Amino acid sequence: MGMNLLCEVCEASNAVATCRLCGRNACANHIDSGGLCSICKETLCKLCSQRLSVSSCTICGRIICRECSVELQPAIRVCKECFSKILYSESYSKYRKYLRRFAKNL
Ligand SMILES: [Zn+2]
Ligand SMILES: [Zn+2]
Ligand SMILES: [Zn+2]
Ligand SMILES: [Zn+2]
User: What does the pLDDT look like over 37-58, one tens digit per residue?
Assistant: First the structure.
């Protein structure tokens, strides 16, 4: 019938599903049981594994989504785990200078 769609990840196999996040057609090798294509999976937030990342943590380097991170300064974003380390751990105290803008909330 010529209705077969190609996987938009490998462009080699027939697509069997559509990614629930980006809408790409993907073959069985490139979609996971949660309905995510391998491209989205790679860019998924390392903390929640639910949302696409928007940035990476300045401290630990993991990619993080908006909800799982705190923007300390424009272009300086840390994950919520590292944010609490900044607050409570001496070894992260050099980052506390960024916390002035949060002073009201602390
Ligand atoms: Zn594929
Ligand atoms: Zn996708
Ligand atoms: Zn997240
Ligand atoms: Zn972090």
Answer: 999 999 999 999 989 999 999 9
Identify whether 3 is part of a domain. Answer: yes
Cα of 9 vs centre of ligand 1, distance in Å, is 5
Residue 6 placed within a domain: yes
Which residues surround the ion ligand 3 when the cut-off is CB under 5 Å?
Answer: 45, 47-48, 65, 68
72, 87, 96, 103 from 91: Cα distances, Å: 17, 10, 10, 20
**What is the reported pTM?**
0.74
Supply the range of the domain harboring residue 9.
1-42
| Ligand index nearest the alpha carbon of residue 24 | 2
How many angstroms does the Cα of residue 36 sit away from the middle of ligand 4?
Answer: 24
Looking at the structure, tell me whether residues 33 and 59 fall in a common domain: no
